[in-house]
Amino acid sequence: MDMERESVGPRLILETKLNRNGKWVICNGVIPCASVPTCWTSEMYPRFHFVVTRDNMLITENMPMALVTPKTTEEFRNYLDSALQDRVANHYYQQHTLQTVESVKAKREKFLTFDHYKLSVWDAILKLNEIVDESVSDPDTEMPQIIHLLQTAESIRMAYPDEKFDWFHLVGLIHDLGKILSHKELFNEPQWCVVGDTFPVGCRFSESNVFHPFFQGNPDNTHPIYSTENGIYEQGTGLDNVLMAWGHDEYLYQVMKHNGVTLPEEAFYVIRYHSFYPWHHKGAYNNLTNEQDRKMLHWVKEFQKHDLYSKLPEKPSVEKLMPYYQSLIDKYFPKVLEW
Ligand SMILES: [Fe+2]
Ligand SMILES: [Fe+2]
């Protein structure tokens, strides 16, 4: 459900939409004027302040946020949402500008040597929990990572209680472990190459990507081959042959493969593509997928329901749940993993 609004004053056309949690957010901002760039960030236009509410959007110039803060508590919450949304926009501005064929290959070369650290799954969970997420790409949550992991796992377990789906429970627990890339004392990687929705590089950036106008700053966007629909790939090549934007999905997938994890193929698929929203949520990039991808899509979509909608306020007990999950870790993972 999209809506377009035109502002008064500075001519801005902003597209807003309901996000996955039912909040109104800005998805695209285009300035229809030849003299300024056609995509914005709050860094580029610090004098513009945006307040998104359910049914209107206020845009002010040279005016501190406080002056346009609506009066009711309900609207005040929206003001906070807007500030968070600003961080999300900044994150995607960087990610869309910097994820290129070249930068992705460089990250793969750096991290797929697996000679950086030796950590067990549980060590990695604890490390992940130490990360203070200042510039989250996900506007839906600010809870400790360990709680998000356990809630996702428990939500899956509730929907798939049968023992034959124990692999799926474990996927819930580990799916974001690749985020340790941003741990200050370990890898210290910036957010743009760790989190956020992912997409292929080496071919045209689909309009189904969030904040699509930000790709205009990406050098691959005007590359003679990378800017074509199939780019460097053959039609229907299969996602396994596609270079994805570098982030926590691909990193954890590669760590698991390198360390001989015995989880079923579905688990590897879910981990590798859970942030590939333009594909599993919007149906884009089907020119690159093959039969196997289409078969696995079901599990990626199933997983997504629990990754998002299990972000509930009540906290699961780590002590009570760990024995069960430790038994799954022992079943499928080696004691220590090379990262
Ligand atoms: Fe994730
Ligand atoms: Fe997650």
Number of domains: 2
Name the helicity range: 25-40%
Low-confidence stretches: 1-15, 27-80
Number of helices: 11
Structural Rg: 21 Å
Query: Topology as H/E string?
Result: EEEEEHHHEHHHHHHHHE
β content, as a range?
Answer: 5-15%
- Quickly give the structural class: mainly alpha
> For the residues shown, what is the average pLDDT?
79
In order across it, which strands form the biggest sheet? 1-2-3
Measured distance between first and last alpha carbons: 42 Å
**Major sheet summary line:** 3 strands, antiparallel
Bound molecules: fe (ii) ion
Number of strands: 7
Rough outline: globular
Pathway: Polyol metabolism; myo-inositol degradation into D-glucuronate; D-glucuronate from myo-inositol: step 1/1
Binding site for Fe cation: 148, 175-176, 248, 274, 307
Catalytic activity: myo-inositol + O2 = D-glucuronate + H2O + H(+)
Protein name: Inositol oxygenase
